[in-house]
C-alpha cells in the first residue's frame, strides 16, 4: 500500500501505527519533496537514494516516517509560540533522512528475481 508504509528499506512504521503512538514519541509521516526548483529536485533525489530500495516505488505517493530525521531537521514554530497555541513541528525544506539508513543497497533476494522474471513473462504474453 503506497503512502501508508515508510519507504525506507527495513522500516515497518505505517501511517496507522503512527496515529496510535502516545506520549513523546509520536511518529509523523513526511511526503517526498516536490519538483519545484533545483534545490528540491536535489533533495528529492537524495531521499530516494537514502531509501535504499531496489524495487521501483513512486515517490509522489510514498512517505518517510519521522524516525529517520533528527531534531535539527525541524524549525521552531514561532507563530504558535508567540500566540500561545499548541506547538507543532515544522519541517525544514532542506531536511534529509539520516537515522536508520543503510549505506549500501541490500542484494536482491532470489524470490524477488523470480518474481521479476514472472512479471516480465506476463508482460510478453
TrEMBL record:
Pfam families: THAP
Superkingdom of this protein's organism: Eukaryota
Keyword entries, A-Z: DNA-binding, Metal-binding, Zinc, Zinc-finger
Region (Disordered): 103-125
Positions of the THAP-type domain: 1-100
PROSITE patterns membership: ZF_THAP
Entries under SMART domains matching the protein: THAP (SM00980)
PANTHER family named among the record's database cross-references: AGAP005574-PA (PTHR46927), THAP-TYPE DOMAIN-CONTAINING PROTEIN (PTHR46927:SF3)
Protein name stated in the entry: THAP-type domain-containing protein
Organism taxonomic ancestry: Eukaryota, Metazoa, Ecdysozoa, Arthropoda, Hexapoda
